[in-house]
Structures are given as structure tokens and as C-alpha cells.
Design goal:
It is a single chain. A hairpin with a 2-residue loop joins strand 6 and strand 7. The protein is rod-shaped. It has four domains: 290 residues, no CATH class; 42 residues, no CATH class; 213 residues, Nucleotide cyclase, GGDEF domain (Alpha-Beta Plaits); 60 residues, no CATH class. The chain is of the alpha+beta class. Helices cover 60% and strands 12% of the residues. Strands 3, 4, 5, 6, 7, 8, 9, 10 and 11 form a nine-stranded mixed β-sheet that branches. Strands 1-2 form a two-stranded antiparallel ribbon.
């Protein structure tokens, strides 16, 4: 499987904190603005008192309780007891959370920066990032949430435990507490889901290997798309609506808070305050019920809508981001899964998808990876089994029969085709084997055959069968495939002999015979036992040609049928050898020796006197035995190791003594197998 490298990625956390802080301010500013405009006179009074208090108190006590006294009285009417500034506490909490987040996230920032520049990453950095990357969403969100909750807890404790807070102060900070608490929950969850989205889809593949991500690496393996959608719905609707409700309730004014008696109001004033319907029916409503009614005045309505609009805007921001994250968290893993499924179906190889989520899609991806692994393992087992079968039944044999797999073969499958048949055998194998043990014999044959088989396969041939130390191979197409293989096998044998001689072992000699003709390839046997075989007279002739190498002292002998199909005969240094009738054949066959397969210096000597040799053969066939004998003896003096020359010298002398054979056509009958 080919795995594409993950693209370069930057690690971002400051952007998340900054954006969350802006949302927090966006939720609080309308509240602060509303409260200030609704209580502007009280805030002006507080401001003047603060200035006077600062002038009287020591600088180090500038943050102690400030008391607001009602003019003309010695007691505080609207005491603004501020032992410390809650807004400053909020700001400090946010700044502290930013510092803590920087310290926690710096190794991740360093890791991705070094990786993007292809620089070495310290081991501790890699270990730290891999260990804590999945915890970054909860830790980053928890830092902000914890510090803000500490501030809120302190504020709530102060409101109920500090008697110096006035009624206005308690009301103001109570309202601030609810708005800020909701805003804190909103930005904490916002940080959590944004960071989680980036971790799953952008960071994991940089910290974990593709093999690791074939399975879920999450500590919590019980994620749920449904739960995520419920949370997203709550975050995008319920919490922003809660902010709207808070602004709504903060904008109301209860009738009991009015600085006048409702009974003293005129009819028109009552209609304006209570509504025409209530007045028209002249309902007798108890004073306690009247006192519990409330209304929203014109100024408060304006501020209420400012808060509502800000809540709606935040809701839209949340909807945009949460829909984007939720969509990408679902579509990206699914698309990756579909892509790998398509690739697996296209080339029947294992393509694994990365498990980036711990929900149902992650479980589905993990299941697909397991299934793909099992399918790939099964395919590999089948391929190994087929490869094992192909060692017994060559792939080319099946292809010639028009079959793709060995399971497609049936009894009686056959095909007629012109092919080149090669037989090769080790000379004097019996004498060699007598000097070796059974195990050494076995190892020797395997080493020899192991050298020859790749040569045959490399020239588009395949081995039909082994017969002890002998090989029968078939070559489809050009006859040069078989001849090139034979020449290379001869060269390989020479290299093998050099190794044997260095080990003090005797050299190995071989003979090769090649014939080209029509063959019948097919499956024979019974349903209980079948095998592929070749039936043709061409096979028998190739075997006989291999045996003739011992008679003529050659290494590679081919038939006239093969020689006639060579496009460039001179490449193989051919030498006409004889016209023979081999055992089992009635017709004579012209045979040729390819001297290119001979080792040096025999190859050069034979090629040097080739013309004289072929001229002597022509004289012999013309029954000019004395002249032919003289020429053969001349060649023998120049190359005494040429057995073919010695054979013809013997024949010439026999013809001179015995005389011409009746009906002789220039061919010789040889019973050599």
C-alpha cells in the first residue's frame, strides 16, 4: 500500500484563545453597556465618591472597600463595597489562562515547526506531543473554564458573605455573574470543540504513523455522532438563547419599584401602564398581584434588543463554526474511507483509511481496515498458494491454455502451438554422483538447477519438468529465446565451474538440444490426479539432439527446423554438423552445432576451422572419402580436441575399407538416446 505523506501543518492555539476572548467580550459588553445606561446616575455618584475616597486613603489601600453615602445622611444609602475589582480579576484570569496555555502548547508548536522544516525533533518533544495531543482539547478548554469559575466562585462567595455590599451592588454583580458564567461555558466549549476538530483532522496523522491510525488511538473509544450533534445543537441554540433570556429579564421593571402610588394615577396613566384591556374590564385585582406585574420601558427595550441581537450574532457565529466542524468531522473521514474503498476495489490491494475520530465513523473505518487487512491477507495467501502452484505448473503453461488460475484448469484442456523445446543434461552425472553422499547429490542438483531456472525464465521460457539432473523447457515465440537461454546457460555453467574448481571439485559438463515444431499442450490424467504435459514428436527429437552432444563433443545442437527460423544465424556461430536418423525417427534430420555455447578456447578453434570442416563434410557426402579424410586429418592436427572431426575420420576410414553403403543418402543412423 502506498501512503501519501501528510501535508505540512501549523499548530495553532493563540488564534483559538483570541477568538474565544472576543466572543466573551461580545457577550459581556452589551450587558455592561445596558447596566451603565440604566444606572448612569448611580455610577456617576459612585465615581465621585471613589475620587473622594482615594484622596483620603493611603495608596496601598486604594483597592479597599469604597462606601457610597447618601448626601445629607451619615450612613451609606448605596454602598459600593469593592474590596477588589471583579473585572480586573476576569482580565487577569484570561491573561493567566493565556500564559498557562502557552506553556502547555509550546512543545506542540515547536514540534510542528521543526517538522515543517524537516529538522530533527528532540525525543522528549515527540514523546510529550504524542502523549498529550489527545488531551489538548480538554486541557485548553479546562484552563480557561477553571480560572473563570474560580473568579465566579469568589464573586458569588463575596456577594453572600460580605455584608458591606449594597443592594444595588448585589443586584449588579448577580446579573453579571449569570451572564459571565454562561459566556464562560460558551467559550470553554468553543475552545474544546475547535481544538478537538483540529486534533482529529489535522494533527493526528503527523504524530502517529499510518499503522497506528489503522485503529483508534483515543483513550475514550465511546464517542458518538448523536451526542456530538446534541451538544452542537445546545451550544448553537440553547446557550445563546439563555443569554437572550438573561438580557430580557434584566430589562424588566416591576411595578412595585415605581416611586409613586398606583392608585393616584389617572385613567390614561393606568391604561399606559397596565393596558386598556385590564382597565376596560375594571377588574378587581389585588394590590399584591399588581405589585408583582412588570413592564419594559422604552430605554430598556432598546438595550434589551442590543443584548438580543448580540446573542443572535453569537448564535450565528456558533452555528457557522459548529456546522463547519461537524460537517468536516463527518465528511472528511467518510470521503477518505470511500476513496480507499475505491482504490482497494480497483487494484485488489489493501488501502487503509486513517481513523481520526472515536465515534461511529471511526469504528466503521477501523472495521474497514480490519476487513481490508483480512482481505489482503487472504489475497496474499492465495497469491502465495498460486505462486507455489506455479512452481509445479508454470504460469506460461496456464496462459497457453487460456487459463488465469490453476483452479480454472480442467481435464482435457489442450492447445496446439509451435514452440521450441529444449533438453539439457549433465554429462557423466553418474560418475560425479558416485563421489558424493545422498545429501550432497541432492544439494548439488538443486544448486545446478537453481542456476539454470532463472536463465530460462529470463528468456521467456518455462520449465515443463525436471528429470533428475535433466531439464525440459519450452519457449513460445521466437526461436532466439531458446538459443539465447542456451548460450547464457553455458556461460553460467562456466562461472559455476570456476567456483567448483576453487573448492577442489571437478567441473560439470552439460549438453543442450533444441528443436522447433508443433506441440500439443494439455491436461492429462484422471479427476483424482492430473498434470500438464506436452505430447509431440518434437519433444522426442529435442531429447535425441541433447544426447548427440556426447557423440559429437558439442554443447549445443539444434535441428534444421530451428536453424531455419533464426533471423541472424551468424550471431550464434553455427556449424553444420551432420545428417542423422535418430532412434525412433525414420526421416533424416540435418543438425547444427552452435559454437557460441562452447567455452574458450574451443569456440575460437572450431570457428576458425569452420569452413574447412563444412567443406570436408560436403566431400564426405559426395563420397569423396579419401579427399575428405585428408582434410579432416588436417583439421584434427590443428584442433585435436574436436570430437566431431575424429568421428568423421573414423567414418571415412570405414568407407574406404568397407566401401560405399548401398542406397546411402549421406545420413547416419545413431542409436544414442
Amino acid at each position: 500500500m502506498k501512503n501519501t505523506l501528510p501535508r505540512k501543518q501549523r499548530y495553532t492555539f493563540f488564534r483559538i484563545y483570541l477568538f474565544s476572548g472576543l466572543i466573551y467580550l461580545l457577550l459581556l459588553l452589551p450587558f455592561l453597556l445596558t447596566q451603565y445606561m440604566q444606572n448612569i446616575e448611580k455610577f456617576k455618584e459612585i465615581s465621585s465618591v471613589l475620587e473622594s475616597e482615594k484622596q483620603r486613603e493611603e495608596p496601598e489601600n486604594s483597592n479597599t472597600i469604597l462606601k457610597v453615602q447618601t448626601p445629607g445622611s451619615g450612613t451609606s444609602s448605596e454602598s459600593m463595597a469593592l474590596k477588589s475589582d471583579p473585572f480586573g480579576m476576569q482580565t487577569k484570569a484570561l491573561l493567566l489562562s493565556l500564559v498557562l496555555a502557552f506553556l502547555f502548547n509550546y512543545p506542540f508548536k515547536r514540534f510542528f515547526k521543526l517538522k515543517s522544516k524537516n529538522r530533527p525533533i528532540p525525543q522528549w518533544v515527540g514523546h510529550y506531543c504524542k502523549k498529550y495531543i489527545l488531551l489538548t482539547p480538554i486541557i485548553n478548554a479546562g484552563i480557561v473554564f477553571f480560572l473563570l469559575m474560580v473568579v465566579h466562585a469568589w464573586l458569588l462567595f463575596s456577594l453572600y458573605r460580605n455584608p458591606q455590599y449594597s443592594a444595588f451592588e448585589k443586584e449588579f454583580y448577580s446579573r453579571f455573574f449569570y451572564v459571565s458564567a454562561v459566556a464562560s461555558v460558551l467559550i470553554s466549549t468553543f475552545i474544546y470543540f475547535w481544538q478537538k476538530h483540529r486534533v482529529h483532522l489535522r494533527y493526528l496523522e503527523h504524530l502517529f504513523s499510518p499503522d497506528d491510525l489503522r485503529r483508534r488511538v483515543f483513550r475514550n473509544r465511546r464517542g458518538s455522532i448523536g451526542r456530538r450533534l446534541w451538544i452542537a445543537s445546545g451550544m448553537t441554540t440553547l446557550l445563546p438563547l439563555l443569554v437572550v433570556l438573561i438580557y430580557l429579564f434584566q430589562s424588566v421593571t416591576y411595578l412595585r419599584e415605581l416611586p409613586f402610588d398606583l392608585k393616584a394615577l389617572t385613567e390614561d396613566q393606568k391604561i399606559l401602564l397596565l393596558g386598556s384591556r385590564l382597565i376596560a374590564h375594571n377588574l378587581n385585582i389585588a394590590d399584591t398581584l399588581i405589585q408583582s406585574l412588570f413592564y419594559i420601558n422604552a430605554i430598556n427595550s432598546w438595550f434589551m434588543f442590543v443584548g438580543i441581537y448580540s446573542g443572535i450574532f453569537v448564535a450565528l457565529v456558533y452555528i457557522f463554526f459548529f456546522v463547519k466542524w461537524t460537517t468536516e468531522d463527518i465528511t472528511q473521514p467518510v470521503n477518505d474511507l470511500l476513496k480507499n474503498m475505491e482504490l482497494t476495489g480497483r487494484d485488489a490491494q489493501a488501502h487503509y483509511a486513517l481513523v481520526k475520530t472515536n465515534d461511529e465513523i471511526g469504528a466503521l473505518t477501523e472495521g474497514y481496515n480490519d476487513m481490508s487487512l483480512r482481505i489482503n491477507t487472504y489475497i496474499q495467501n492465495v497469491q502465495r498458494l498460486n505462486e507455489a502452484y506455479f512452481r509445479f505448473v508454470p504460469r506460461q503453461f496456464l496462459e497457453l491454455l487460456g487459463r488465469n488460475e490453476i483452479t480454472d484448469v480442467s481435464l482435457g484442456d489442450q492447445v496446439a502451438r509451435e514452440m521450441s523445446v529444449m533438453f539439457t543434461d549433465i554429462r557423466d552425472f553418474t560418475s560425479l554422483s558416485e563421489e558424493m553422499s545422498l545429501q550432497e547429490n541432492f544439494d548439488f542438483v538443486n544448486s545446478y538447477l537453481g542456476l539454470m531456472e532463472p536463465v530460462i525464465r529470463g528468456h521467456n521460457g518455462f520449465i515443463d519438468k525436471y528429470m533428475g539432473d535433466a531439464i525440459m523447457a519450452l519457449f513460445d515465440g521466437r526461436v532466439e529465446n531458446a538459443l539465447d537461454a542456451a548460450v547464457e546457460m553455458s556461460l553460467t555453467l562456466e562461472e559455476y565451474n570456476q567456483v567448483r574448481e576453487s573448492e577442489g571439485k571437478p567441473p560439470v559438463r552439460m549438453g543442450i538440444g533444441v528443436h522447433t515444431g508443433m506441440l500439443m499442450l494439455g491436461i492429462v490424467g484422471g479427476y483424482g490426479k492430473m498434470e500438464g504435459t506436452v505430447i509431440s514428436d518434437a519433444v522426442n527429437l529435442a531429447s535425441r539432439l541433447e544426447g548427440l552432444n556426447k557423440v559429437y563433443g558439442a554443447r549445443l545442437i539444434i535441428s534444421e527446423a530451428t536453424y531455419a527460423k533464426i533471423s541472424e544465424p551468424d550471431k550464434y556461430l553455427p556449424r553444420r554438423l551432420d545428417r542423422v536418423r535418430v532412434k525412433g525417427k525414420t526421416n533424416a534430420v540435418d543438425i547444427y552445432e552452435l559454437m557460441a555455447a562452447e567455452p574458450e578456447p574451443m569456440r575460437s578453434l572450431k570457428n576458425k576451422y569452420k569452413d574447412r570442416f563444412e567443406k570436408a563434410i560436403t566431400l564426405f557426402r559426395e563420397k569423396k572419402f579419401e579427399v575428405a579424410l585428408s582434410l579432416f586429418e588436417e583439421i584434427s592436427d590443428l584442433n585435436p580436441d574436436d570430437l566431431a572431426v575424429k568421428l568423421y575420420i573414423t567414418r571415412c576410414r570405414e568407407r574406404i575399407i568397407v566401401g560405399e553403403l548401398p542406397n546411402w543418402d549421406g545420413s547416419e543412423s545413431i542409436s544414442e538416446k
